[in-house]
């Protein structure tokens, strides 16, 4: 579809109605943002078409949504680990507060119902948008996501700095005759670290599934990310029972 034949609605139509953009420019901006796979507001601001404050002001006024200055938000007070970080980054959305069955989120375009519905589906609550300026949202969201990663890394110790292939899974595997067999009190610390590292990597990659695939002569672990399975590790086959335990 040519940009000139594109029907405008939502935020781009409001920008045209308020004479911030002419219709052709708005259509071209929508088409370009879709081609770049970025939100429209991000495209407009980063290309210098409009300022973040201009867009936030008209958006809040036209759609009756509160406008909030993120300079006054304490990132540490935002609810943690309730929405996948990749989803937040994809849609430029920041969880601000949660009160019972209501989640307030900072976003630039409250007419982006697809983004709101994705968040609502994942969290299972009503999502209430709060309009904010794009440039401030970008900074706040980066700080929020980095804080999530740091918290997860602290919870799992030094695993964030370790490569899967460097973990010694067979440490302590050579047992004396009077030592217990696997599953009877064997020290599983290396296995636990390996599984924790897998979980950490899966979360950071935004994987939807972890596949443990034991075969007769091999064993592999794969992550599914964006529908594609990718091999991440090949642990020794003799450890299959302990990894499945």
Can you offer a commentary on this structure?
This protein is an alpha+beta fold and 245 residues long. It has three domains: 3-63; 70-155, 2-Layer Sandwich (GMP Synthetase, Chain A, domain 3), CATH 3.30.300.160; 157-173 and 182-244, Beta-Lactamase (2-Layer Sandwich), CATH 3.30.450. It is built from nine helices and six strands, in the order H-H-H-H-H-E-E-H-E-H-H-E-E-E-H. It has helices at residues 10-17, 23-36, 40-46, 52-63, 85-91, 113-123, 134-155, 189-205, 240-244, and strands spanning 94-99, 102-107, 126-131, 209-214, 219-225, 228-233. The protein has a three-stranded mixed sheet with strand order 1-2-3. Strands 4-5-6 form a three-stranded antiparallel sheet, with helices on one face. Strand 2 (102-107), helix 6 and strand 3 (126-131) form a beta-alpha-beta unit. Helix 1 (10-17) packs antiparallel against helix 2 and helix 2 crosses helix 3. The longest helix is centred in the middle third of the chain and has 22 residues, at 134-155. The N and C termini lie far apart (54 Å). The model is unreliable at 172-186 (pLDDT under 50).
